[in-house]
Write a structure and sequence with these properties.
The complex is a heterotrimer of chains A (294), B (268) and C (432).
Chain A (H helix, E strand, L loop, with lengths): L2 H34 L2 E2 L8 E2 L3 H8 L1 H33 L5 H13 L2 H12 L5 H8 L14 H26 L3 H9 L5 H28 L3 H6 L13 H11 L3 H32 L1
Antiparallel strand pairs in A: 1-2
Chain B lengths: L1 H27 L21 H8 L3 H32 L5 H11 L8 H10 L6 H5 L6 H12 L3 H9 L4 H12 L1 H17 L2 H6 L8 H5 L10 H22 L14
Helix pairs in contact in B: 1-13, 2-13, 3-7, 3-10, 7-10, 8-9, 10-13
Chain C lengths: L1 H17 L13 H5 L10 E7 L3 H17 L3 E7 L3 H13 L6 E4 L1 H9 L12 H6 L2 H6 L1 E2 L2 E2 L2 E13 H6 L9 H15 L4 E4 L2 H10 L17 H15 L3 E4 L5 H6 L5 E5 L13 E4 L9 E10 L5 H14 L2 H11 L12 H9 L2 H8 L3 E2 L8 H15 L5 H22 L1
Parallel strand pairs in C: 1-2, 1-3, 7-8, 7-9, 11-12
Antiparallel strand pairs in C: 3-11, 4-5, 6-9, 6-10, 6-11
The chains are: A mainly alpha (294), B mainly alpha (268), C alpha/beta (432).
C-alpha cells in the first residue's frame, strides 16, 4: 500500500460508523424524498403518479411561496447578525473573571433547555396587546404598544425576539468553547507588546476565534432558514396575521403534510435546500478569501 | 469601573432571559382561576403548591425521566465517540474524497428533518424495531453538527501535537482520545451538552416510534396539559419547571469545565 | 369515479395485506401471541389490540378507566392505549404506520383523515359488527358523519358541538333578561354590553370556521353537491362576512387571534359571550365568573357546527383482533359507557336513547349546561370531510383577517376565498 492509500484507509476506518448511520438514516431518506418530489403521492396510498417537474413549477407560480421566501430571508437577515453579536458579547462577559459566573452562565442557557411548548405560551402572554408584560413596560415609559401578535408588521420582531431569546445561551456556549480554545500564551505575548482592551480583542481574540465564528455563522444561517417552531407556537399553528409569519418550512409543512401532498412538500423542501446550499457555499467562499487576506 | 460595566451588562441580559421564567414559575404556583387575569400579578395568592403534585401524577413522569436519561445518555456517548473520530479524520487526515464527503455531510443539515420521518419509520419497521429502545435511539447516534463543531476545533490546534504523535507511531484513534481529548475538553462538553439537550427535547420521533408508556420520554408527558380547546396552564408550567431542572443541573455541572483562559500545558 | 377506485383498492389491499405479518402490534413484543392466533377468531385465545389515541390528561385517564372496565368484562382481550399528544401528532403517527404497514388495530381519527383512509381501502366497514339497533340509535348527524356511500366506516366517540356561552352578571348589568336567540339580538346585546360595561359583548375567532358557521346560519352551502367547487360565494356567504365585519366595526365583538382560546378570554371576562364548543367547559375555571350556556343564535336558520374524533378499525389487523376491536367499539359506545364518558369529560352522548335515559336526564338536571347542546343537534352539520382543504382553510382565514382589518371589502374577500377553495379542490382531485 502506498502512503496515500494507507492514510485513506485509516481515515475511512474512523469514518465508518458515521458513514453507515448517516447513509441509512439520513442520506437514503433524503434521496428517496428527492425522487418523490417528481411524483404525486399522498403518503398512504401504494400508488405514486409520476408528474415530472410539475410540483416544482406549481410552487414557483404560487404567490404564497414567494411570500414565504421573502419572509424567510427577512428572518435570516435579522436573526443571524443579532444572535451572533449578542452571543459573542455574552460569551466574552461570561469568560471574564467574575463572581456568580456559574449562575449567569446557567441563567442564560436556561431558555435553550426548556420546552418550547411552555415558553411559547409565556411569550404569547408577554406579547399580548392588552395585558402583556411588554406593553406594561412600554406604558411605564409612556408608549402605547401595538397588539404585537395581531399586527402583521410586528410579526418578524416577535419571531426574532423569541428565537434570539431561545438560542442566545446556545450560541454563547459555542463562543465560550471557542474562547476557551485560545491559548493563554497568545494573550500574554500580545500584552507584552502593549495590547489590551479593544486591540487585544481585534488582534488576538477575533482572528483566533474565527473557526468558531465561522461555525456559528454557518449553523445559525442553516437553522434560521429552517425556522418553523417559533411560528407554530407563537401563532397557534397558523402562519400569523396576513401570512406575515409564513416561512418556507411552514409552507412545506402545511401545504404538504396537512394536505397529504408529499411530492409537493418534498419539492418545496428541495427548493429550500438549494437556497441554503447556495448561501452556505457563498459563506464558505467568502470565509476562505478573508482567511487568505489576513 | 470596567467590572461594574460588565456586571451591569450581564444583569440586563439576565433579566431579558429570566423574565419569562419568573412568569412561568409564578404561573405554575397559581390556582387555575387566577392564571389568566386582566391585571396579572406575579405573586400567586394563594400559592397552589399542589399544581406540582397534580402535574407529576398526570403522567408516569418517573418512568419518563429514566427513559429520557437513558436515551439521551446513550445517544450522547455514541455521538461524541463517533463524531470525534469523524471530525479527527476530516481535520487531520489526508484522504481521497475528503472535501466531497464533508460537503455531502454538511448538505444533509440543509434538508428539513420533517422529510425524514416517514422513510425512517419505514426503515425502523423493516428492522422490526418499532416500539423498542434501539428504534428510538439508533437513527440519532451520530449528528453532523457534532462532527462539524469538533472539526473546527481540531483544525485550530497547533499541528506540532499531531506531528509529534505521528512520529511516536501513535494510531490516530489513540492520538484522539489520549492526547487531543484532554486538551479540548470545552468542545467535548459543548457538543455533549447540545446533543444531550436536543435528544432530551426531541418529541415527534419518540411518539411515532414508541407504542408504549414504558418507552416514552419527558416531552410526551408535557403533552398531557394541552388539548385542542384549552390548556391547563398552571400544571403545564409546573411540569415544564420540573422537567427543566435536570437539564439545568447537567449544564451547571458541565460548565465548570469552562475555565477562564485555560493554560494548555504541553502544547509546545 | 373516486368510489370505483376505492372499491378496486379495497380488494387490492385486502388480498395484499391479509397474509403479511403486519398485525396491528407492529413489532410490540406483547402482541406476538395475538398475531399467531390470527387464523381463527377464537375467543378463548388471548388477544391484544392497539389503540392510537390523543386524549390528554383527565380525558386520557377516563379513557383508561373505561378500557379497564372493558378488559374486566373481556379477560381475554388486552387493549393497549397509545397516547400521541396533539391531533396533528396522532395524524403523523398514523401516516407513518400506514406507510410502513404497521397500522394499529383501532385509532381515533378526524373525518378528513378518515376520508383518505376510506378512499385507500385501509379501514374496515363496520356495518356487520355494529348491530343495526346501535347504528339506528346513533345521533343522526354523527351517523351521517361516519358513513361513506351509505356504509358505516367509523363510530363517533369524543364529539362536541357549539353553544353560546354567556356571562350571567354581564348580561344582568346590561339589563338583558335572557340570552340572545337570533343574530339581531346577539348584535344588539353585544352593543348594549359594550356601551354599559366597556367590554366587547362577544368574543369571536376571526377564522374560516366562524365564517362557515355563519354561512350555514345564513342558509348557505359550503360546497356544491359533488364537492368540486365552492358554493359559498352566494348572498348567504356575503351576509356571513358582512355580519362578522359589522360586529367588529361596531366594537360589539373582539376578534381573538388564532393563538388564543375563546374560553381564555371568557374566563377573564375580556368579553361577555362567545360561541365555542362544549368541550371547552372544563377550562372555564375562574370562580368569579358566573356563566351559562344557551343554544346558538339563529340567522336565517339554525346551524350548529360539530367537532371531535371518530373510531376506526384498520383492516390490516388479524381476524381475532378485528373481532376484539369490534367488541371494544361496541363497549365504548354502549349506553352506560357513553353516559359515563359524557359526564366525566363534557363530550356529548353519541346515542339518541341516552337523551331520554334516566341516568342522563337526572344528570343534566344537576348539570343544566350539559343539557343544552344535545337539543340543538337536529341543526348540526359537519365541515367538508376533505383533507385537501386544510391549507385552503388557513388561507381563507388570512383573507377574513384582511377583511376585518379593513384591508379589503367583503365582496373581494368572498371572491378570493372561492378562488382559493376551487384551486385546492382542483389540486386535491388531480393529486390523488
Amino acid at each position: 500500500m502506498t502512503l496515500k492509500a494507507r492514510r485513506t484507509f485509516t481515515a475511512y476506518m474512523m469514518l465508518v460508523p458515521t458513514l453507515i448511520l448517516v447513509a441509512v438514516f439520513t442520506l437514503y431518506p433524503i434521496l428517496e424524498s428527492f425522487v418523490i418530489s417528481f411524483f404525486h403521492w399522498d403518503m398512504i396510498s401504494p400508488h405514486k403518479q409520476f408528474v415530472g417537474l410539475q410540483n416544482y413549477l406549481q410552487i414557483f407560480e404560487d404567490p404564497l411561496f414567494h411570500r414565504a421566501v421573502i419572509n424567510t430571508l427577512l428572518f435570516v437577515i435579522l436573526y443571524v447578525p443579532i444572535v451572533m453579536a449578542l452571543g459573542l458579547a455574552v460569551a466574552l462577559l461570561l469568560n471574564a473573571r467574575i463572581r456568580f459566573r456559574a449562575f449567569f452562565r446557567t441563567a442564560i442557557f436556561l431558555p435553550y433547555v426548556t420546552s418550547i411548548a411552555a415558553t411559547g405560551i409565556i411569550w404569547q402572554w408577554i406579547f399580548n396587546g392588552q395585558f402583556g408584560l411588554l406593553n406594561d413596560l412600554l406604558r411605564q415609559i409612556g408608549i402605547q404598544g401595538p397588539d404585537w401578535l395581531n399586527t402583521p408588521q410586528d410579526t418578524m420582531i416577535c419571531l426574532v425576539t423569541l428565537s434570539v431569546w431561545q438560542s442566545l445561551g446556545y450560541v454563547s456556549v459555542l463562543f465560550l468553547a471557542g474562547l476557551q480554545n485560545i491559548s493563554r500564551e497568545y494573550y500574554e505575548a500580545a500584552r507584552v507588546d502593549g495590547a489590551h482592551g479593544w486591540r487585544l480583542f481585534r488582534h488576538v481574540t477575533w482572528p483566533l476565534l474565527s473557526p468558531t465564528t465561522f461555525f456559528v455563522l454557518l449553523m445559525s444561517t442553516i437553522e434560521a432558514f429552517k425556522v418553523f417552531l417559533p411560528v407554530y407556537v407563537l401563532y397557534g399553528a397558523t402562519d400569523g396575521p396576513n401570512d406575515s409569519g409564513l416561512t418556507m418550512l411552514y409552507y412545506m409543512f402545511t401545504e404538504g403534510f396537512s394536505d397529504y401532498r408529499m411530492g409537493y412538500a418534498s419539492a418545496s423542501a428541495y427548493i429550500l435546500f438549494v437556497i441554503i446550499l447556495a448561501c452556505t457555499l457563498l459563506q464558505m467562499t467568502l470565509q476562505r478569501r478573508v482567511h487568505y487576506e489576513s | 469601573m470596567r467590572k461594574l460595566l460588565v456586571y451591569a451588562a450581564l444583569l440586563v441580559v439576565t433579566l431579558f432571559v429570566l423574565g419569562p421564567f419568573i412568569w412561568m414559575i409564578s404561573t405554575s404556583l397559581k390556582p387555575a382561576g387566577e392564571v389568566l387575569s386582566a391585571t396579572p400579578s406575579l405573586w400567586p395568592h394563594p400559592f397552589e403548591w399542589s399544581n406540582y403534585s397534580t402535574a407529576w401524577k398526570s403522567a408516569p413522569f418517573g418512568r419518563y425521566f429514566l427513559n429520557s436519561l437513558l436515551i439521551s445518555g446513550v445517544e450522547t456517548a455514541f455521538d461524541l465517540t463517533f463524531g470525534a473520530m469523524a471530525a479527527y479524520a476530516f481535520a487531520r487526515l489526508e484522504f481521497v474524497g475528503k472535501r466531497t464527503l464533508f460537503l455531502a455531510l454538511l448538505a444533509t443539515l440543509m434538508v428539513p428533518g420533517e422529510l425524514l420521518l416517514i422513510p425512517n419509520y419505514i426503515t425502523v419497521a423493516k428492522l422490526h424495531w418499532v416500539s423498542t429502545y434501539q428504534g428510538i435511539i439508533v437513527p440519532w447516534l451520530v449528528s453532523v453538527f457534532t462532527i462539524f463543531l469538533m472539526r473546527q476545533f481540531f483544525l485550530s490546534m497547533p499541528s506540532e501535537i499531531f506531528e509529534a504523535a505521528e512520529l511516536d507511531g501513535l494510531h490516530p484513534v489513540r492520538t484522539l482520545f489520549q492526547i487531543v481529548m484532554p486538551l479540548t475538553k470545552p468542545v467535548w462538553i459543548t457538543a455533549g451538552l447540545i446533543k444531550f439537550i436536543g435528544s432530551w427535547n426531541s418529541f415527534l420521533w419518540v411518539v411515532v416510534v414508541s407504542n408504549s408508556q414504558s418507552l416514552d420520554t419527558v416531552p410526551v408527558g408535557l403533552m398531557n396539559f394541552t388539548s385542542d380547546v384549552g390548556t391547563e396552564y398552571n400544571q403545564l408550567m409546573a411540569a415544564a419547571t420540573f422537567c427543566m431542572v435536570p437539564l439545568a443541573i447537567v449544564f451547571l455541572v458541565g460548565q465548570r469545565y469552562f475555565v477562564e483562559g485555560i493554560a494548555r500545558s504541553g502544547i509546545r | 369515479m373516486a368510489t370505483a377506485t376505492a372499491v378496486v383498492m379495497c380488494t387490492l389491499m385486502a388480498t395484499g395485506c391479509g397474509d403479511e405479518e403486519t398485525g396491528g402490534g407492529g413489532g410490540v413484543p406483547m402482541t406476538k401471541s395475538a398475531n399467531s392466533s390470527g387464523q381463527a377468531a377464537s375467543t378463548a385465545q388471548p388477544v391484544t389490540i392497539t389503540f392510537e389515541e390523543s386524549m390528554p390528561g383527565k380525558l386520557g385517564s377516563e379513557l383508561q378507566k373505561l378500557t379497564n372496565e372493558f378488559e374486566k368484562q373481556n379477560p381475554n382481550v388486552h387493549v393497549q392505549l397509545i397516547f400521541n399528544g396533539s391531533y396533528s401528532t396522532l395524524e403523523q403517527k398514523l401516516t407513518a404506520a400506514i406507510a410502513s404497514n404497521t397500522e394499529p388495530t383501532v385509532a381515533q381519527v378526524e373525518e378528513t383523515w378518515e376520508t383518505n383512509y376510506v378512499q385507500n381501502g385501509l379501514i374496515e366497514p363496520l356495518d356487520s359488527v355494529i348491530p343495526k339497533s346501535t347504528q339506528n340509535d346513533l345521533i343522526p348527524i354523527w351517523r351521517q358523519d361516519s358513513s361513506y356511500n351509505g356504509k358505516l366506516m367509523s363510530v363517533p366517540f369524543n364529539k362536541s358541538a357549539y353553544v353560546l356561552y354567556y356571562n350571567v352578571d354581564d348580561l344582568k348589568k346590561a339589563g338583558i333578561s335572557s340570552p340572545p336567540t337570533t343574530w339581531n339580538q346577539l348584535e344588539q346585546d353585544a352593543i348594549k354590553i359594550q356601551k354599559k360595561e366597556g367590554i366587547p359583548g362577544l368574543g369571536l375567532q376571526g377564522n374560516y370556521y366562524t365564517f362557515e358557521m355563519l354561512l350555514k346560519q345564513a342558509g348557505g352551502q359550503i360546497l356544491n353537491a359533488s364537492n368540486t367547487k365552492a358554493a359559498f360565494n352566494s348572498s348567504a356567504g356575503l351576509a356571513a362576512l358582512d355580519f362578522m365585519k359589522r360586529l367588529v366595526d361596531e366594537h360589539a365583538a373582539k376578534v381573538i387571534g388564532a393563538n388564543e382560546y375563546l374560553s381564555d378570554g371568557f374566563n377573564t371576562n375580556e368579553y361577555a359571550m362567545d360561541l365555542d364548543t362544549v368541550a371547552a367547559m372544563s377550562f372555564i375555571n375562574n370562580p368569579n365568573i358566573h356563566w351559562k350556556v344557551a343554544p346558538l343564535p339563529k340567522g336565517a336558520t339554525y346551524a350548529v357546527p360539530t367537532a371531535g374524533l371518530n373510531l376506526v378499525i384498520f383492516n390490516a389487523a388479524t381476524p381475532a383482533q378485528k373481532a376484539a376491536a369490534a367488541k371494544y367499539l361496541n363497549f365504548l359506545i354502549s349506553v352506560p359507557s357513553t353516559i359515563e364518558w359524557a359526564e366525566q369529560t363534557g363530550y356529548l352522548p353519541v346515542r339518541q336513547s341516552v337523551l331520554t335515559n334516566p341516568a342522563w336526564t337526572s344528570y343534566i338536571k344537576t348539570h343544566p349546561n350539559q343539557g343544552v347542546a344535545p337539543n340543538e343537534l337536529k341543526y348540526a352539520y359537519f365541515s367538508p370531510r376533505l383533507a385537501s382543504l386544510y391549507s385552503a382553510e388557513q388561507e381563507m382565514t388570512t383573507q377574513i383577517g384582511n377583511m376585518l382589518a379593513g384591508r379589503q371589502t367583503p365582496q373581494v374577500t368572498l371572491q378570493n376565498m372561492a378562488n382559493i377553495t376551487n384551486n385546492a379542490l382542483a389540486q386535491g382531485n388531480s393529486g390523488q
